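User: Hi! I have a protein structure encoded as tokens and I'd like to know what sequence might fold into it. I'm fairly new to this, so please keep things simple.
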């Protein structure tokens, strides 16, 4: 298990992010690749997995989603629409600056796929390896940790109208059919 160590890095400016955005927007639509699977066993801890097991009851097996209270539900239970997060590997590569910083974003599955609202409306289903997940209506936006790790300009971009429509910060999903997902697996819209 890797505890998150946040080395000093230079965050990209708004102009640098704007210049990099066209490359992010060339992500494939409809079918792509799983690039990284990360389990969060505890707050600020990350484990990069060779194989992730997705389960409808707990999301990514061993992840802390099912153990953390949620402010998005009346009783504080985990929000079923926030079970799993997918993030564009193209965008995280831009903001992270290096591959070894991707997991700092806090998402579980990093994919080379167009995650925009246009490409994946709420209710869209994806095959991730042998599992099936469904895109939910929950907005996934950057928090204070995202801003600290990747910069205020990156945070402003993901909160912008364009950033939200493109889902640059990522997208929430729920597990529909259990299965396994590995880096290198195909991700496909069903």
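Assistant: Happy to help. Inverse folding works backwards from shape to sequence: for each of the 190 positions I chose a residue that suits the local structure. Here it is:
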């Amino acid at each position: 298990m890797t505890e998150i160590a946040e080395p000093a890095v230079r965050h990209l400016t708004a102009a640098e992010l704007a210049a990099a955005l066209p490359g992010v927007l060339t992500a494939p639509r409809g079918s792509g690749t799983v690039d990284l699977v990360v389990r969060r066993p505890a707050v600020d801890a990350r484990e990069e997995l060779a194989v992730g097991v997705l389960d409808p009851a707990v999301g990514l097996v061993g992840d802390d989603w099912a153990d953390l209270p949620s402010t998005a539900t009346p009783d504080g239970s985990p929000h079923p629409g926030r079970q799993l997060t997918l993030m564009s590997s193209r965008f995280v590569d831009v903001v992270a600056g290096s591959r070894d910083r991707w997991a700092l974003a806090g998402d579980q599955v990093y994919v080379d796929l167009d995650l925009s609202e246009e490409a994946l409306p709420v209710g869209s289903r994806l095959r991730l390896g042998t599992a099936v997940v469904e895109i939910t209506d929950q907005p996934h936006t950057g928090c204070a940790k995202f801003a600290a790790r990747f910069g205020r300009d990156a945070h402003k971009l993901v909160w912008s109208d364009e950033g939200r429509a493109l889902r640059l910060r990522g997208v929430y999903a729920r597990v529909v059919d259990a299965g396994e997902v590995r880096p290198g697996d195909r991700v496909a819209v069903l």
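A useful reference point when you look it over: The domain at 11-189 is CATH 2.40.33.20 (M1 Pyruvate Kinase; Domain 3). Feel free to ask if any position seems puzzling.
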